Structure formats: C-alpha cells, structure tokens
Amino acid sequence: MNTKDQLKKLAQEGDEEAQYALGRLYEFAASASQAQKDFNKRRAMPYYQAAAEKGHPEAALRYALGCERGYTGIAQPEEAFKYYKKAAVLSNIRAHYELARCFENGIGTTKSIGRAMENYGRTVRLIRTLIADIQCGRIPLTAAYTPDLNEANWILKKAEERIKDIGQAPTLGTPPPKLG
Asked: Which of 30, 96, 105, 161 is the most exposed place for a label (fewest CB within 10 A)?
C-alpha cells in the first residue's frame, strides 16, 4: 500500500491529519495542465472541510481559500468567511488577515472598515509576537514546528500596508477637523 492509499484509508477513518495531508497532496499535486490542477484543487476541498470540522486550523484556512476561489465548484464567499472565522478562532494567523480583507471588501459579510482595521491590527500584533517569541527562544523551532516565516513576513507587510492605506483614505461623512 503506497502513501496515498494509506492516507485515504486513515482519512476515511476520520483522521484529521490524514484528511489535511490528503487535501494538500491533491491541491499541490504536480500537473501538466491547468485543467488537471483545477480538478486536483476541487478534489482537495472535501478533505480540507472534513479536517476543518474536526478543528484543524490550516485545513479550515485552505477550505476557506478554496471556497472563495471557487475550488468547491462555484465561489462561495459566505462559506469562505465562515471558515476564515473558524480558522482564526483556531489561532491561524493568516485567517485574521483574510477576515480583514473580507471585511474591507464585503466578501461573504457586510463591508466594515472598522472591523477590517481591527483584524489587520490583530494580524500585525500576532505576527510580531510570533517573531519575537521565536527570536527570544520562547517558541523553539523544531522539525515538528517551524512556521513559514516568509509567509508571515509577507502577510505582516500586506497588513501594515492596508492599515496605512485605509488610515489615509478619506472617510465619507466624517466632518472636517476644526481649525483654531
């Protein structure tokens, strides 16, 4: 029995790590054509959803991204928002960034610049805390746990840019500052 068959067996038995791993195997499988890549991404979604329902934070994020991008068959912004929230509650830092983006643009929820700013700010604080904890040795890097610091820095940069851009944008309905 090969690795993929072993993962399928464990996934069918309800093992959330196997469900997540099988989802990743399908989503990121090397494919010759774009059509095959899209097919593989659609095949990954039920495995991500199953693992997310059991509380797997990264699976919840991957499923939300798939819902938003239409890998479930059609774009499902409300479902994406629901799973971004689930991933954020499960301490997935990128999910906070994605929630902020949803609030900023009204993706699957009512547009709210205030809620977007809250979540962008939370993203920045969480990533800065993660980096500081790693640098101080409070979070030891091991073979079992090594966060993707390139992705964390990319998200940090994007969140800081959005905070700056939104903060500089004129707000309709806000009275001008009083002079004198």
From this structure: 30
